[in-house]
What we know:
Distance between the termini: 49 Å
Number of domains: 1
Number of strands: 0
Radius of gyration: 28 Å
Helix content: over 70%
Strand content: under 5%
Structural class: mainly alpha
Amino acid sequence: xxxxxxxxxxxxxLALLGAALWVMAPFISALLWGAILAxxxxxxxxxxxxxxGGRETLAASLLTAVWILxxxxxxxxxxxxxxxxxxxxxxxxxxxxVDGLPDAPEWVAGLPFVGERLVAxxxxxxxxxxxxxxxxxxxxxxxxxxxxxxxxQIGGGVLELTLSLIFVFFFxxxxxxxxxxxxRLLLRLVGERADYYxxxxxxxxxxxxxxxxxxxxxxxxLALIGFLIAGIPGAIVLGLVTFMLSxxxxxxxxxxxxxxxxxxxxGEYGMAVFLGIWGTFVISGVDNVLKPYLISRxxxxxxxxxxxxxxxxLIAFGFIGLFIGPTLLAVGYSLLLDWTRDAGQVxxxxxxxxx
Length: 355
């Protein structure tokens, strides 16, 4: 009878846990983002708490307000600026449809072997531009629907970001108590290795944060420098766009390639060549050097495990997978290592009794 009661209690607890996870499911992503942000900036929280004489709630409120000023308000400003640039792009397409392309540059005709062909191709493209736009007109509605759907996703992402900034306050305020709860839970699950896995997860998340965010910040700064040198209007906006695009694989070219094409359109061929070279070898090239260095720094995990976790997590879980993927692979890799070490230890032979 006691075993039956124990089983019934376990079933009820599992059902209660499942119901709680079901209620929290819409907020899981925002909770994870809030936890990652709080963990990555926890040294700032400790420093601010020390300055305020141990008042954790006040420190959490001030630091959360700082994140709102640094993250939420620039996103709103970026949205308004992008709307202005969308209108500029619409006017650009309309001008091309009415006036056509400008004449081909004189230096193109002077190129050996291919100059005449390039000029002829440019003229044919100019003549066919209106017909091409007319044939593409029926698809503009589909493009508009696609953009509307993406706008809805962006709106959902902004809402999720707002929720994560609210949750980060509670992670700041209750961080030590939450950490103690997680430690007790892991002690019940894995025993004496609990501290090791806590440090493993913390180190993996910290390295990914440093690698992804640090590389994105470096690429955004380099892109801003290139845009300012080339005289691109809205360089600050494009720098922020580059930062966001740098968080996804092969994202920065989506910022500097259109800027390079705009320079070609304006006849600034020298600056277009400069920005193309700067974007290829500096903006995009730094990703191949800085990100692996920052991710692998200070850890004993193989770099390939972390990189596979970053890209695989991005595909499997979306943007939050940048942190979930490498954490899962790191824990799984460490569990397999522990298991193989335990399996490789040959137990000592039993002691033979004396005859």
